[in-house]
Design a protein that fits this description.
With about 625 residues, the protein is an alpha+beta fold. Helix content is about 20%, strand content about 35%. The chain has ten helices and 36 strands. It has an eight-stranded mixed beta sheet with strand order 4-3-7-2-1-9-12-11. The chain has an eight-stranded mixed beta sheet with strand order 26-27-25-24-30-34-33-32. The longest helix has 18 residues. It is globular and about 90 Å long. About 35% of the residues are buried. The mean pLDDT is about 95.
Length: about 625
């Protein structure tokens, strides 16, 4: 392999990737030939759980020297920045002794739910055939950022859970059998490097999915898919919403209070009802920073799967299941015929009607229709989502829908929210007339950007919230002296952050100025992008980022000409204007980046690269001022 320049340039080859599914354990094997420094990431392991049944491996050098791996503690722990979205991955494990020229072999085994129960001499009939961390629905990708010579899936004949392979177009799969079960083999899978703005489930490389079966529905595994989904709604969800609840006088009084004096059309009444419910309840599954209920608050919230809405009405305490049912019944009481949408977080899975299991859904939305208006979706579990907004990662995907009156099943798409709903606005006052520059900034967030921040801010103290905004600005080179975060929990208002900071001023013959110091981009801006792309492109959301700035500059510095940059692509438009007041010498700057599309096919990749480059240029502009010649006395 060392003699192949192409492989050496790629950095590594996956010699073998094996997944072995047995009733009591799940075993993974990874064998990698590292050929250069560029391949070191091929042995980064992100899914090595702490409680293993066994672990063995070794790192072999060209001179035959071997370093044995026998414990999880033998691995080095690293933080890794994802090239897909810029997020920081904690706890990534690196085998010890890895070099730019070696072979790494690791095999680890973990217990399934059934295996753990059997080892504890407990009943295992209803236990899962996957490790507990995988839940009832999980898929594995067989590809890698490096070429894979052998990818093998082995499944015991006693493994009763259904499974399927997908994204296999263009790949040959050889089926076989052995003493440990059936085998499914792929050879020579090409490298598929990380691609920003892609979904793992849609990447063009083979994957294998396992999920828990549902008793009594196996006969609908073939035939029209909607027959299956209608039966799921009739047997499971109708019962869950209508039967698995306890209502009484306390609930009826509560319902009348919340519905009193509701005004407007169906959408407005539904939104108001959801807002009132949020103010009257505390979700014990999603406590915010200032919510500290009594330890006994969970008593009677849920009794053997039956949500006690009377208890919720009396105490205000609910759990995730209870608040979904509570809002559903309040909407029914108001005569609004709520519609249910079962969705999945597209960062983990994209709903597929042909995958016949409700375990693919991870969340429920409730909708209210009004003639001539788009459906209003409410998120009962979205404590940091204003009523009528949908978290961005449920948008742009299909949902299984049914209403609470006739319970007819169907599929429809949850639309993307328009760009105008997702905003980031910044206002800067910058003074560069002293040796140390002074900056004052006010930032306002609404829609998806506010939700991104509030998800963590809601659980943090005021001091921690201020530290979050401080950290954001200091990544941009500022030294922050004061911060304030307002409306972190008030969803009726935009999230507003203000700060004061300093930055060094380095005047000379020229002065380089960023009129928006410390501001970051709403979009992830990769440091580099591959020449080509095979994945569909999906941005987190559409949105608009705007900024204005007034910059006081040292006397005698001149902007040679106004700066005006405008660019439009199929993904959106950007604008930057910087001008100098001839009387005061102050600069005034404004920028706007409008992301107006969120999804497209790989053919739009060239346009995406142009757009990201244009966004970078207006979010992080560098304006050059020249010092005018001193007048001769």
């Amino acid at each position: 392999m060392k003699g192949d320049p192409g492989l050496v340039a790629g950095g590594a080859v996956i010699l073998e990737r094996k997944l072995d599914f047995q009733p009591n354990y799940f075993e993974q094997t990874l064998r990698v030939r590292i050929l250069s420094q560029a391949g070191m990431a091929a042995v980064e392991i992100t899914d090595l759980p702490p409680n293993l049944l066994s672990l063995e491996g070794q790192v072999t050098q060209p001179d035959g020297k071997v370093q044995v791996i026998g414990r999880r503690e033998d691995f080095l722990v690293r933080k890794v920045v994802s090239t897909a979205d810029g997020s920081v991955q904690e706890g990534v494990l690196i085998p010890p002794g890895v070099t730019a020229d070696c072979v790494v072999e690791v095999r680890w085994r973990e217990a399934t739910e059934r295996g753990r129960a059997e080892a504890s001499r407990m009943s295992f009939e209803d236990k899962g055939h996957l490790p507990e961390r995988c839940g009832d629905f999980y898929f594995w990708s067989l590809g890698s950022a490096y070429p894979t010579q052998v990818a093998l899936v082995q499944r015991s004949r006693e493994m009763a859970w259904p499974f399927l392979f997908f994204s296999t177009n263009g790949y040959a799969m050889a089926e076989g059998s052995g003493s440990m079960g059936s085998t499914y083999l792929f050879r020579n899978l090409p490298a598929l490097p990380s691609a920003p703005f892609s979904l793992d489930v849609q990447r063009p490389v083979p994957k294998v999915l396992f999920y828990r079966p549902i008793d009594g529905l196996s006969y609908l595994a073939k035939g029209p898919a909607m027959d299956y989904w209608q039966k799921v709604v009739d047997l499971a969800y109708k019962n869950w919403f209508l039967v698995k609840v306890a209502k009484g006088e306390a609930y009826r009084t509560f319902s009348a209070e919340l519905r009193k004096d509701l005004a407007g059309g169906p959408r407005e009444r539904a939104r108001t009802l959801a807002e009132r419910l949020a103010k009257r309840t505390v979700n014990l599954d999603q406590l915010l920073y200032d919510e500290k209920p009594d330890l006994l608050a969970r008593h009677a919230v849920d009794e053997d799967g039956v949500s006690n809405l009377n208890y919720a009405a009396k105490t205000g305490f609910v759990d995730n299941n209870g608040v979904e049912k509570l809002l559903f019944h309040l909407l029914l009481d108001e005569g609004l015929k709520p519609k249910v949408a079962l969705v999945a977080d597209r960062r983990q899975w994209v709903v597929n009607p042909e995958v016949r299991t409700p375990f693919q859904f991870t969340h429920q939305l409730l909708g209210v229709e009004e003639p001539g208006q788009p459906i209003l979706w409410l998120d009962p579990l979205g404590r940091m989502v204003p009523a009528g907004e949908v978290p961005y990662y449920y948008q742009g995907t299909k949902a299984l829908t049914f209403d609470g009156v006739n319970w007819k099943a169907g599929f429809q798409e949850i639309r993307f929210s328009p760009a105008a709903d997702n905003g980031r606005e910044f206002a800067f006052q910058v003074d560069l007339t002293e040796e140390v520059g002074k900056v004052r900034v006010e930032a306002s967030f609404k829609g998806a950007p506010a939700f991104q921040a509030r998800r963590s801010l809601g659980k943090q103290s005021p001091t921690q919230r201020e530290a979050w905004f401080k950290g954001t600005l200091e990544k941009g080179g500022l030294t922050v002296t004061r911060t304030e975060v307002a409306h972190a929990l008030d969803l009726s208002k935009p999230l507003v952050c203000t700060a004061e900071a300093t930055l060094p001023v380095e005047p000379g013959r020229i002065l380089k100025v960023n009129p928006f110091p410390g501001m970051d981009a709403a979009l992830f801006l990769p440091a580099s992008l591959a020449q080509e792309r095979l994945d569909p492109i999906i941005l987190p959301f559409m949105g608009i980022q705007e900024a204005r700035s007034t910059v006081k500059v040292p006397r005698g510095y001149v902007l040679p000409a106004p700066v005006v940059r405008v660019k439009s692509t199929q993904w959106g438009t950007v604008l930057l204007e910087v001008r100098q007041d001839p009387a005061s010498g102050d600069l005034t700057a404004r920028m706007k980046a409008s992301t107006l599309s969120a999804y497209n096919l790989p053919a739009a990749y060239g346009s995406l690269k142009d757009y990201l480059q244009a966004v970078r240029a207006v979010v992080f502009p560098e304006v050059t001022l020249e010092k005018s010649a001193e007048p001769v006395k």
